[in-house]
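Journal club prep — side note

Before the paper discussion, L.F. wants everyone to see what a predicted structure for a comparable chain looks like in token form. Sequence:
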Amino acid sequence: MVLEKIGYTFRDPVLFQKAMTHSSYANEQRARHLQHNERLEFLGDSVLGFVTADYLYNHFPELPEGQLTKLRAAVVCEQALYEIAKELGIDEEIRLGRGEEMGGGRKRPSILADAVEALLGAIYLDGGIEPARAFVLSFIPRKADEARAGGAFTDYKTALQEIVQKNREETLHYRLAGESGPDHNKVFEIELLLNSNVFAHGKGRSKKEAEQMAARQALELMGRKV
């Protein structure tokens, strides 16, 4: 289903299988020595950032660096990639461990967004930059238009960073304060430090989500409309 929708045929099908394998599944299948998708996710994240930056730079020449950064963050954010994963049917094809399956992993944005990046990493390894670019450009232009039109994605971290950068004496840092819950249903808590002092907190199903929530609280405390 996923392969039909992306229109790409893998020369090495094992790469696709690896992209669709969550660590929870691989850990349960240790005897089979399965590899999960986290390393592919790391690679895909870098390819996604490069291709997206190249597209935005060339298609929005009127935007300054700050707005390009904000737009890029919006179109590759967890929510945007989660929606792409749903469109491609990754939620039905990804292999999850029993605990993750029972905990609703197929609906978890962090897992599905990571799988999109892993899939991109697999395409890049299998076919090089051009098919990887084609995959990214199958959704980035649409997501960029949605974001430019005031669409669904708000990047609180970038908004906060732009405010803080106006005063060079200000420093901003995110720190993991704790995590709770079983492995398949963790909740992360992030502390946002402004000038080394805890200024705001955020919780989420992933560290990225918790950081966004902390940044949102900080903006609210500053009296900014969010």
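L.F.'s comment for the group: The two ends are 38 Å apart (CA to CA). Keep this in mind when we get to the figures.
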